[in-house]
Design a protein that fits this description.
heterodimer; A: 250 residues; alpha/beta; Rossmann fold; four-stranded antiparallel beta sheet; globular; B: two-stranded antiparallel sheet
């Protein structure tokens, strides 16, 4: 059963067809990789589904419900969360606070003006547990602005994960980190996503990571979906080779 | 895995009591140790501290710089003056209630417009709207008294305490001082609770990264609106407490330089910590009073202080004291 479907989803920026009548589906529990060259429309597609930008036309259906016109917080409540290509964190708050804020928000507790956040022991405990899962527990009291890029990438995912999403978009979770750090970061993310049966969409440029961690690959090119299939099928696809990997790979 | 929430460990109630109780004791005995003028000056400072606490909920915690907080201060003060003039009310509790209602109405209206914008657009809008109120107070002189303002006599406290048969200065330096002190303590406690609540955390999240805050499900505009409302009400309460001390309200307190003074107080104390605005308001009050008495060029003197502050002590008096304290602890530990 499909968790998410888009029907003729379209977004133009002037003359640029960022997303052009895209029919995109993702099944429950899948770990799907979204690839394509720069400007292919990957991030635009994620921005449309997560609610950061509004489509010009088309529909987004999540768990059988049309969420095309829903607000960002409505989509989050429905179970869609995301991390960002350029990490978005609360830099002047600690790692613990970053994760705890997601939990407070998820439980609707951020509306409370007259109760001490510190007294919400279950929230802090869960935040500690999540940081442990992501290997960040030792940095819990450190400000998010003072950790390494690799740790920031992990924290960005941890903040999204703390929302307990059904569908998690990971926009280039290893961009800007050293080659040596990429696999350990993906190992952590992959094990959490798979052990909690979270459906995930990973945007990545590193093909080793794509082929190693995804169940299915969707290839975008110039705003449209060029191909979709298993890592092996995509590896053998000549059109994809030409369009994405360039003639040298053909 | 740790089971003790770090944030909880940081804010031990014992630590708070250790510094809050001695300060409260000093504030309690002060009217009996200093001359009445000093007590009244401190009462002014405490009233202003409530305003700056409210202002700082927006600046320090939500990341919104308001240049129009004179409006809410003025609304509180004028609400009291109108109650005296048109309803012949004397009760301070009714004054406070009236000021709260009036500031809720005005802040809700202004906030509805302002929280749609951020950064310079927010600041300019708050400034422009406060100037609208100033011009109304200035032009509608048959209602507001114009530049002559409206007189506000000493109020009746808790329905029993009045200045009748008592020297007005003595009343303001004792009975009224304690009234202001109690309201100040209640406001500090309430603001402390708000900024340490999950709501307060959400405001800090909005301040730090609006996009991420949005993508953890925080409805930015709604939270900003509530913060704006709370901020305005605190400032309105401050205006209501201030006006009996001053005995008169004029359009000056609605004019933009007064908003600038509130910003100055927050910067002076430090707007990135809870106690900074309180210290800033009290110190500014003394500084301005003595500067005015010392030189006719007091505005230039205050301007120089502001420049030095921004350049040398960007974290304000409290922020600097904390940094020095941390440095001293490190040195001592070695």
């Amino acid at each position: 059963m499909n968790l998410l479907e888009t029907a003729k989803l379209t977004k133009y920026f002037g003359d640029t067809h960022a997303v052009d009548k895209v029919d995109f589906t993702i099944g429950e529990g899948e770990v799907l990789a979204l690839i394509g060259s720069n400007g292919a429309g990957k991030t635009s597609l994620v921005n449309l589904i997560s609610g950061l930008i509004q489509p010009d036309s088309g529909r987004i259906v999540f768990r059988g419900e049309d969420v095309t016109n829903q607000s960002v917080d409505g989509r989050i409540k429905a179970g869609i969360a995301r991390s960002f290509q350029i990490v978005n964190l609360f830099d002047e708050l600690t790692l613990l606070d970053n994760v705890a804020l997601s939990i407070f928000s998820r439980e609707g507790k951020t509306r409370r003006l007259f109760s001490l956040a510190d007294h919400q022991h279950a929230v802090w405990q869960e935040a500690h547990d999540i940081l442990s899962q992501f290997g960040l527990e030792s940095k819990a009291p450190v400000l998010a602005g003072g950790i390494s890029q690799g740790e920031r990438k992990l924290l960005d995912v941890a903040v999204a994960y703390a929302l307990k999403p059904r569908l998690l978009f990971l926009d280039e979770p290893t961009s800007g980190v050293s080659t040596r750090e990429k696999a350990p970061i993906m190992d952590v993310i992959s094990s959490i996503v798979r052990s909690h049966k979270i459906t995930a969409v990973v945007i990545e440029h590193d093909m080793d990571i794509i082929f190693r961690y995804s169940d299915r690959i969707v290839v975008m090119h110039q705003g449209v979906i060029l191909a979709s299939g298993s890592p092996e099928e995509i590896r053998r696809n000549e059109t994809v080779k030409d369009a994405v990997f360039g003639p040298s790979h053909a | 895995m740790s089971t003790v929430p770090t944030a909880l460990a940081k804010r031990s109630p014992l630590k708070i009591v250790a510094w809050a109780v001695p300060i409260a004791v000093v504030l309690l005995v002060l009217p009996y140790l200093v001359d009445p003028y000093q007590s009244i000056l401190l009462a002014y400072g405490l009233a202003m501290a409530i305003a700056v606490l409210g202002f700082n909920l927006l600046l320090g915690y939500t990341g919104l710089l308001s240049f129009g907080h004179s409006a809410y201060f003025g609304v509180g003060a004028y609400a009291v003056a109108f109650m005296v003039k048109y309803l012949h009310v004397q009760s301070m509790e009714l004054f406070l209630l009236g000021a709260i209602v009036a500031s809720v109405l005005v802040t809700a209206l202004f906030g509805y417009v302002c929280v749609r914008y951020t950064k310079i657009f927010f600041s300019i809008l708050t400034l422009a709207l406060s100037q609208v109120l100033w011009s109304l107070a200035f032009k509608f002189f048959w209602v507001t008294g114009g530049t002559d303002g409206l007189r506000v006599p000493t109020p009746k406290l808790l329905g029993v305490v009045t200045s009748e048969g008592e020297d007005k200065i003595h009343f303001l330096a004792h009975g009224y001082y304690y009234y202001v002190l109690v309201v100040f303590i209640l406001c500090v406690a309430l603001m402390w609770l708000i900024v340490h609540s999950p709501f307060g955390k959400a405001l800090q999240a909005i301040r730090d990264n609006e996009t991420r805050a949005r993508f953890i499900g925080i409805r930015i505009r709604r939270y900003r609106f509530v913060a704006f409302l709370v901020s305005g009400v605190f400032t309105g309460i401050a205006g209501a407490l201030w006006v009996p001390l001053n005995g008169l309200t004029t359009p000056d307190i609605l004019y933009w330089p007064f908003s600038g003074e509130i910003v100055f107080m927050a910067v002076l104390g430090g707007f990135r910590n809870f106690t900074g605005p309180i210290v800033g308001a009290v110190v500014f009050n003394y500084l301005k009073t003595y500067a005015v008495g010392f030189t006719v060029y007091w505005q230039a003197f205050m301007g120089v202080i502001l420049v030095v502050l921004v350049m040398v002590l960007p974290t304000g008096l409290v922020g600097t004291a904390k940094l020095l304290g941390a440095y001293a602890r490190r040195r001592f530990a070695k």
